[in-house]
Amino acid sequence: MKSVTGDLPKPLLLLNGRPLVEHVMGSLRGAGFDKFLLVVGYRHELFYARFAGDHSVHYALQDPVDGTGSAARLAEGFTGGEPFLLIFGDILAAPEDLAAMWKTLMEDPAAAGVIAVKDVDDPHQGAAVYEEGGVVTKIIEKPPIGTSTTRWNSAGIYAFRSVVFDALKRIQKTERGEYELPSAVTMLLGEGERFLISPLVGAWRDVGRPEDVAAAAEITSGSLPG
What we know:
Elements: H1 2-5, E1 14-15, E2 18-19, H2 20-30, E3 36-40, H3 44-50, E4 57-61, H4 68-73, H5 76-79, E5 84-87, E6 91-93, H6 95-106, E7 111-119, E8 127-132, E9 135-141, E10 152-160, H7 163-168, H8 181-190, E11 194-199, E12 204-206, H9 213-222
Parallel strand pairs: 3-4, 7-11
Antiparallel strand pairs: 1-2, 5-10, 6-12, 7-10, 8-9
């Protein structure tokens, strides 16, 4: 993404004149959330400047930047033991879908978390989520093309209860040399914890490649609140 972001962190990429992260937070506000923790790293001072004076925004500095798992772990104090919603900073989603997955978690006290999923032809570029009756049975990261028997792809949005932090403290680095959030979910599944899926039906985009920017700009121009 450096060809389109230049020296900016990707969440500060401008879409219709506003940073990507502001569109993400706009959707969260539309779903009823009013308190945010931004886990920042590279050029973190730009985030501080952008949201100066906004008392709904809090920060955690990830140093070193060594994976989504260690980033998520930094939220433990912020959440205070309460359930929370986690979304990657390059994911655009509709407020209605965020509200629906939160409702799914709240209506099942036995669930450790809810995973947002998107119906795709083949989830080889993300994580294949297998389920039975809406309950997750396993997750396979980056499965080879044509090997998945599920169409559900993890959408990069989670609703968690605090049990996830226990797992985050125990995960090991993956082959990529990072502590990754899905490792904690897989660990908890192996220990018998209950995870549910929440299928997305509204606008969604993972802004991961330069070719995603035009589609993301179109989404933020009308489908999602700013």
